[in-house]
């Protein structure tokens, strides 16, 4: 059995560019006041098909997050930066962020749609 060449394996992969925004607190006071606007922004991006996924990041063994990660769909880095800058936490200077392009190659998603009660379950 011969091993395939990497370029042959890459050819069939998804190779979709997404943008990863990792955030850390910039200053403390005001976070709770801006949190509803931040969450509403995330939900709006989700409904508009921009948000791939988002949530807090934890150090190993920690119960309190040290930051967050937001993965967005954007045409290019400039558009991804506009999306990040518009986040109410970033606009208010409460969080700072780093932006990186991520190429999604491998993985899978599992979901179940139940017709009987019109529910969907992701994962499992």
Topology:
Blueprint: H1 6-11, E1 16-25, H2 31-47, E2 51-57, E3 67-72, H3 77-86, H4 88-91, E4 95-104, E5 111-114, E6 119-122
Strand order of the largest sheet: 2-3-1-4
Helix content: 25-40%
Elements, N to C (H/E): HEHEEHHEEE
By oligomeric state, this entry counts as single chain
Count of domain modules: 1
CATH fold description? Alpha-Beta Plaits
Instruction: Tell how many strands the DSSP assignment holds.
Output: 6
Average pLDDT score: 89
CATH architectural type: 2-Layer Sandwich
Question: Low-confidence parts lasting 5 or more residues at pLDDT below 50?
Answer: none
Class by alpha and beta content: alpha+beta
Tally of alpha and pi helices: 4
The backbone outline, from C-alpha atoms, is globular
């Amino acid at each position: 059995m011969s091993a395939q060449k990497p370029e042959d394996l890459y050819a069939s992969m998804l190779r979709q560019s997404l943008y990863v925004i990792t955030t850390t607190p910039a200053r403390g006071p005001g976070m709770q006041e801006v949190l509803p606007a931040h969450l509403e922004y995330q939900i709006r991006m989700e409904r508009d098909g921009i948000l791939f996924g988002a949530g807090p990041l934890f150090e190993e063994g920690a119960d309190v997050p040290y930051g967050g990660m937001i993965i967005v769909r954007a045409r290019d880095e400039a558009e991804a930066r506009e999306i990040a800058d518009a986040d109410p936490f970033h606009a208010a200077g409460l969080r700072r962020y780093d932006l990186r392009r991520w190429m999604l190659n491998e993985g899978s998603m599992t979901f179940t749609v139940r017709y009987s009660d019109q529910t969907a379950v992701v994962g499992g």
